[in-house]
Amino acid sequence: xxxxxxxxxxxxxxxxxxxxxxxxxxxxxxxxxxxxxxxxxxxxxxxxxxxxxxxxxxxxxxxxxxxxxxxxxxxxxxxxxxxxxxxxxxxxxxxxxxxxxxxxxxxxxxxxxxxxxxxxxxxxxxxxxxxxxxxxxxxxxxxxxxxxxxxxxxxxxxxxxxxxxxxxxxxxxxxxxxxxxxxxxxxxxxxxxxxxxxxxxxxxxxxxxxxxxxxxxxxxxxxxxxxxxxxxxxxxxxxxxxxxxxxxxxxxxxxxxxxxxxxxxxxxxxxxxxxxxxxxxxxxxxxxxxxxxxxxxxxxxxxxxxxxxx
Length: 310
Hints:
Elements: H1 2-29, H2 34-57, H3 64-141, H4 145-196, H5 198-208, H6 214-231, H7 233-256, H8 277-284, H9 286-289, H10 301-308
Helix pairs in contact: 1-2, 1-3, 1-7, 2-3, 2-7, 3-4, 3-6, 5-6
């Protein structure tokens, strides 16, 4: 009986969790009517559990059209529940991905600005180097004082431009430092977000190879969600039916093993027709089947198995 209670409790817990996920997911899908959708979803989830239990317990006596419709309804409601669970888990993934995307966009923008400043510094340094090379060429081609005078004159003519280039380099260095300081905390936040989706990257890498891209990650997420919904609500329904099955069997055994007021076991109405006729006659004969409660252990096991089996 304890295991029956555990099975039934587990089935109800799974059903309640699946219902919660489903209702939240359906509310996300139909956000314009969240409250009515929540009420409808809760009612349908409760109806699904009741329909599954009632159909199993009344399968032999219920009209064929009714029980087949209830089976179809349970299947359709399971699909709806799975759709709601898919919506809920997808929304959770998007809520996790959006901050990461925003932070990644900020880091990318800052990286682009840093690259521009570094390119400006490199360009200005190349210009200064070209000025120096021009002066050096004049010095190398001349062997008298006139060449030195021309080199000095050229450097003086470059002085204004050199000052401008040096100032631009200083401005770019200050901007580069500011951008780097601004990028540091955002990059740290991005690393934290990447740690959160780290397991997903490992799953995507397992199926799609090393260094998975964004599409591979999305496919991995969908695969995990689909795997979950295939075992979520269907498992809850099957556990609920299993609990009902075990309860029915338990009640049947309890009834068969309960003696009547005279202390005998005289209810043998469910004997199967293929059993031996002589055994039936013995069971119907009061003198051969009356057994005191204290002596029930003396009945041969093979007789007990035949008498009390379903």
